[in-house]
Specification:
The protein has 19 helices and 17 strands. The protein is α/β, with parallel strands linked by helices. The chain has an 8-stranded parallel β-barrel, surrounded by 4 helices. A 3-stranded mixed sheet has the order 8-10-11. A two-stranded antiparallel sheet has the order 1-17. It is globular.
């Protein structure tokens, strides 16, 4: 591993010239310059993984089948027919993962419970799987003993296959299935887990129904994706009220949700492009935040647009499901925090709405988004580098949805890279380090300069893992996982050391020799 000379010391940097991470592209002084300073005392740092992506042991210890087992084990669905059967083998390597978390110096570890390790067929009537309970008990206890707080996601996409066979996430019973499972987890682990997350990125799950590129493999564009979000919101609020009423008084924890929170920036200052960006953000982030933090219902622009498009396509009612008045009352304010997963942004331009003969969510939104050709890219075609967008997203979320005083976390942020030809040979990951440095610095500015009510930042990901349809062909980890090694050995990259130094100093106060090192590596530069 290359050890950076990042002496992040208290004091004022002696650097005189403005510094930038991407000076060739993002070089506007007020928007893009690197800013020195510390996050507020008490700001929290974490790293994240998800059960199917890291655990492996897919048929060990009584775990039931999931939709991602079924999907990945079907030839042609995942890159090179790779599966999460073994993944990072974290089921067997909890101690190693905790040591790496301690090396990073983070405060908490965001991981998910595999629903089918607790309830193999997804239903409480099927009985609780004790080996699964023991595995998560051991994980939680070891984290706490190491001084790390568990941040537990209850559902990160690995739905028990039996529930899919019964109708899945669009079934009317889904909120109750989820509430039963959540209640069992509160009973089993809530004496030690104080940060709960209901579901991860409902919008991404909706996209699986839109594009048929991920589990459960149901193709229903413009229809079932809206049903998925609807059921996830009802599942979340049901579990929230159970926790709030029955468990929070004695356990004292917090219950939140995690959403996709990309950003659309107006391509120009013309009113039509400003409207296009606003509309895009309402169809994205607002889709979840309006019901929870503003009105109890979907954004009005979505309700109107989808109703009109549905009528023109011959539907007798809107394809967007409707909340009852009682459901709206229960949804509004039904979260203790909101996790925001940010990776990328786009520029948005106006385009007139022309109803397509067949429905799609993109046609309903009817906004043209794009990235200029000179923007930095990543190994994932969807992840374009736009650092200032994370700050603009946080500013907008605070202004638009901060009225209830409910705080936010960044619950995922990271960079997509290609694996090394020789596994884990090159640990000097400059591109990933640049991305993290630029984005965390913009997060700092959102907190310090804009007053965003942000409690913490969570790095995705602790280690390279199974990246869904991309299998192991893409990596996000600050620890390289050697998938050619049966033991799945983890090796720290330069980005791990960089992140550790930022965490240890709670921000950015660099001495001049540290700046010189970053300049030498091409991570910082003068404009």
């Amino acid at each position: 591993m290359v050890e950076p000379l990042l002496l992040l010391l208290a004091g004022v940097s002696l650097a005189s010239a403005d510094l930038f991470v991407y000076p060739e592209v993002f070089n506007k002084t007020n928007r893009d310059r690197f800013v020195f300073g510390n996050f507020p005392q008490g700001f929290r740092w974490g790293s994240a993984t998800a059960s199917y992506q890291v655990e492996g042991a897919w048929n060990v210890g009584g775990r039931g089948m999931t939709i991602w087992d079924t999907w990945s084990q079907t030839p042609g669905n995942v890159h090179n027919d790779q599966t999460g059967d073994d993944a990072c083998k974290s089921y067997y390597k909890v101690d190693d993962d905790i040591r790496n978390l301690q090396t990073l110096g983070v405060d908490y570890y965001r991981f998910s419970i595999a629903w089918s390790r607790i309830l193999p067929n997804g239903l409480k009537s099927g009985g609780i799987n004790q080996p699964g309970v023991q595995y998560y008990n051991d994980t939680i206890n070891k984290l706490l003993a190491a001084g790390l707080q568990p941040m537990v996601t209850l559902y990160h996409w690995d739905l028990p296959q039996n529930l899919e066979d019964m109708g899945g996430q669009i079934a009317p019973q889904f909120p109750q299935w989820f509430a039963d499972y959540a209640t069992i987890c509160f009973q089993l682990f809530g004496d030690r887990v104080k940060l709960w997350i209901s579901v991860n990125e409902p919008q991404t799950v909706a996209g699986c129904y839109e594009y048929d590129s991920c589990a459960p493999g149901v193709y229903s564009p413009g229809v079932d994706g809206y049903k998925v979000i609807h059921q996830h919101l009802l599942a979340h609020q049901t579990a929230y009220h159970i926790y709030n009423d029955q468990f929070k008084p004695t356990q004292g924890g917090q219950f939140g949700i995690v959403i996709v929170s990309g950003w659309s920036e107006p391509a120009t200052y013309e009113q039509k492009d400003v409207y296009a960006a606003w509309r895009s953000n309402q169809f994205g982030t607002g889709w979840l935040l309006s019901p929870l933090l503003k009105t109890g219902n979907y954004p009005e622009v979505m309700i109107t647009a989808i109703a009109n498009a549905s009528a023109q396509q011959g539907y007798s009612e809107s394809r967007l499901p409707v909340f009852t008045e009682e459901e709206q009352k229960l949804l509004l304010g039904a979260t203790d925090f909101v996790g925001l997963n940010y990776y990328t942004g786009r520029l948005a331009s106006y385009m007139p709405f022309v109803p397509a003969p067949t429905p799609s969510m993109s046609n309903d939104q009817s906004v043209y988004t794009y990235a200029p050709e000179d923007w930095p890219t990543s190994a994932c075609d969807w992840l374009l580098v736009m650092p200032y967008a994370i700050r603009h997203m946080l500013q907008w979320v605070q202004a638009e949805y901060g009225g209830l005083g409910i705080p936010f976390y960044i619950t995922e942020n990271g960079f997509c890279a290609q694996p090394d030809p020789i596994p884990c040979q090159n640990t000097l990951d400059v591109d990933k380090s640049k991305y993290l440095l630029a984005h965390i610095n913009q997060v700092y500015r959102a907190v310090a300069e804009d007053g965003v009510n942000l409690l913490g930042y969570t790095l995705w990901s602790l280690m390279d893992n199974f990246e869904w349809a991309d299998g192991y062909s893409k990596n996000f980890g600050v620890y390289c996982t050697n998938f050619a090694d049966p033991d799945r050995w983890r090796t720290p990259r330069y980005s791990a050391s960089l992140f550790h130094k930022i965490v240890a100093n709670n921000g950015f106060v660099f001495q001049d020799d540290a700046i010189g090192e970053l300049k030498k590596l091409g991570i910082l530069a003068e404009s």
